[in-house]
C-alpha cells in the first residue's frame, strides 16, 4: 500500500497470492450451485466455525441482515447491545427492510450485554400489544467497546438464557478470529454457544470482498433464499472465494502480528503528552485514544496534519481516534506513526 492507512482493517489491498489465486480460480454459476471454489470456501468456513453449513455473502452487513431475516418474521424483536454494530452502523436494515424491531440493551465494558436488562427485555408472548422476542445477538470482537474479546463465559450465559426462553442466538463475528486469538481458543469454541455466526473476509483477513454466514444445514438453506431476495445471489463468484481461501490459509495464522503491533502502537502513543488511551492497552488490533485538553488541535486538525505525512487515521469524535492494525502495517509503519504523532502533538500554534 502506498499510504500508512490505519482507518480500519477494511482498507487492506488483496495480497499478491490472492491476486494470483483470483486469476486462476475455477468458477461456475453459484446461483445454480455450480461454483467449485465457493464450495471449497464454504466448507472450510463451516469447518472452522464448527457449523454444518455456510453461505458466502457480499458483506458483513448482508450476512447479519440475512441471519436476522432467517431467524425472525416481520413484527418479531431482536435483543442486542446499544453499541452493537448491527444497531449503530448497519443502516437500520432489520427494521427498514425486514420489519424486525431492535430492542437495544446496555453493553457492558467488556462488550457483553447487561443481563438484568436482557432479562427485562423479554416480551410476554401472549400479549398482543408487544412484538415477539425471537433473537438475541452478540458481537465478538466488540468494535465500539474497544475491539475487546467478549468472554466465553458471558456468551454461554446469554445463550443458555435465550434457549431457555425459546429464543435463537446470532453472533456478529466480523472479527471472529481476532476474538479467538485474544481468548486463546479455536474459533469453533467461540461459535459453539450460538445458532449462527457471520465473519468477514474483508477486514483483518485482507480479502477484497465477502463474508461467510454459518449455521445448521436447515438454517443455511433458508438463508440462501433470503440472500437471493436482498440481491446477494452472485454468479461466477469463485474469483472472490479464491481470495477468501488464501485469507484463511495464509492471513489468519499471522493475526497475532496485528495484535502485537497494536499493543506496540498503544504503548508508544501513551508516552506522548496529550494522549490518553480510552480502554487501556488493546486486546486485539484496535487502539482507541483521545486528546487531552493540553493539545490545542482537535482530532480533525491532527488527522489533516498526519495526512500531509501520508498517514491516514480514523477520527471517532471531536478529540478521539481509532487506529486499526492489519496485514499492511509493519513494524516500520508503527514507528513512523508514533514519530508523526510526537511531532504533530508537539507543535504549538
Describe the overall structure.
The protein has 349 residues and is an alpha/beta fold. The protein folds into 2 domains: 4-9 and 254-346, Aspartate Aminotransferase, domain 1; 16-251, Aspartate Aminotransferase, domain 2 (3-Layer(aba) Sandwich), CATH 3.40.640.10. It has 14 helices and 13 strands. It has helices spanning 16-24, 36-49, 60-71, 85-88, 93-98, 115-121, 152-164, 176-183, 187-191, 217-229, 238-251, 255-269, 299-307, 331-346; strands spanning 4-5, 53-57, 76-81, 101-105, 132-139, 168-172, 196-200, 211-215, 275-277, 286-291, 311-312, 314-317, 320-324. The strands form 3 sheets. Strands 2-8-7-6-5-3-4 form a 7-stranded mixed β-sheet, with helices on both faces. Helix 2 packs parallel to helix 11 and helix 3 (60-71) crosses helix 10.
Name the helix and strand elements from N-terminus to C-terminus, one letter apiece: EHHEHEHHEHEHEHHEEHHHEEHEEEH
Instruction: Examine the coordinates and then state which fold CATH places here, giving the name of the CATH topology of the largest domain.
Output: Aspartate Aminotransferase, domain 2
What class, by secondary structure content? alpha/beta
The order of strands across the largest sheet is: 2-8-7-6-5-3-4
The N- to C-terminal Cα distance equals 32 Å
Kindly report the average pLDDT value: 96
Helix segment count?
A: 14
Please name the fourth-level CATH homologous superfamily of the largest domain: Type I PLP-dependent aspartate aminotransferase-like (Major domain)
Query: What is the approximate shape?
Result: globular
Number of strands: 13
Task: Tell me what portion of residues adopts beta-strand conformation.
Answer: 15-25%
- Which CATH first-tier class of the largest domain would you pick? Alpha Beta
Please name the CATH architecture of the largest domain: 3-Layer(aba) Sandwich
Low-pLDDT stretches: none
Q: What is the CA-based Rg, rounded?
A: 21 Å
Amino acid at each position: 500500500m502506498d499510504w500508512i492507512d490505519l482507518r480500519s482493517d477494511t482498507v487492506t489491498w488483496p495480497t499478491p497470492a490472492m491476486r494470483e489465486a483470483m486469476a486462476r480460480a475455477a468458477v461456475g454459476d453459484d446461483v445454480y450451485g455450480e461454483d467449485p471454489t465457493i464450495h471449497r470456501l464454504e466448507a472450510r468456513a463451516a469447518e472452522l466455525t464448527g457449523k454444518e453449513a455456510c453461505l458466502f455473502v457480499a458483506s458483513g452487513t448482508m450476512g447479519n441482515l440475512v441471519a436476522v431475516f432467517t431467524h425472525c418474521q416481520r413484527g418479531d424483536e431482536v435483543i442486542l447491545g446499544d453499541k452493537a454494530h448491527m444497531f449503530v452502523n448497519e443502516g437500520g436494515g432489520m427494521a427498514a427492510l425486514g420489519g424486525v424491531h431492535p430492542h437495544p440493551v446496555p453493553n457492558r465494558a467488556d462488550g457483553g450485554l447487561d443481563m438484568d436488562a436482557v432479562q427485562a427485555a423479554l416480551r410476554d408472548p401472549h400479549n398482543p400489544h408487544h412484538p415477539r422476542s425471537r433473537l438475541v445477538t452478540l458481537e465478538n470482537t466488540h468494535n465500539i467497546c474497544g475491539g475487546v474479546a467478549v468472554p466465553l463465559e458471558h456468551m454461554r450465559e446469554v445463550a443458555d438464557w435465550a434457549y431457555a426462553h425459546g429464543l435463537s442466538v446470532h453472533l456478529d463475528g466480523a472479527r471472529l478470529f481476532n476474538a479467538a486469538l485474544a481468548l486463546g481458543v479455536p474459533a469453533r469454541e467461540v461459535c459453539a454457544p450460538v445458532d449462527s455466526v457471520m465473519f468477514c473476509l474483508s477486514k483483518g483477513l485482507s480479502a477484497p470482498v465477502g463474508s461467510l454466514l454459518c449455521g445448521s444445514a436447515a438454517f443455511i438453506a433458508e438463508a440462501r433464499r433470503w440472500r437471493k431476495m436482498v440481491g446477494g445471489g452472485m454468479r461466477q463468484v469463485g474469483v472472490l472465494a479464491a481470495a477468501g481461501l488464501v485469507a484463511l490459509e495464509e492471513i489468519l495464522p499471522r493475526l497475532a502480528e496485528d495484535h502485537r503491533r497494536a499493543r506496540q502502537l498503544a504503548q508508544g502513543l501513551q508516552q506522548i503528552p496529550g494522549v490518553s488511551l480510552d480502554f487501556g492497552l488493546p486486546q486485539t488490533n484496535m487502539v482507541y485514544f483521545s486528546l487531552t485538553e493540553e493539545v490545542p488541535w482537535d482530532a480533525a486538525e491532527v488527522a489533516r496534519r498526519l495526512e500531509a505525512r501520508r498517514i491516514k487515521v480514523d477520527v471517532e469524535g471531536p478529540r478521539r481516534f481509532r487506529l486499526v492494525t492489519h496485514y499492511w502495517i509493519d513494524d516500520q509503519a508503527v514507528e513512523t506513526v508514533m514519530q508523526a504523532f510526537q511531532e504533530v502533538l508537539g507543535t504549538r500554534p
